[in-house]
Amino acid sequence: MISGIDKIAYTDEEKAEAHQKGTETILKFWEVISKENTEQSKARRMLAKMTFQVFFFFLLAAATVFKFDADLARFLLQLAGKIMFLVSAIGVIYFGPHQLQKIVRK
Question: How is residue 8 annotated by DSSP?
Answer without folding.
Answer: T
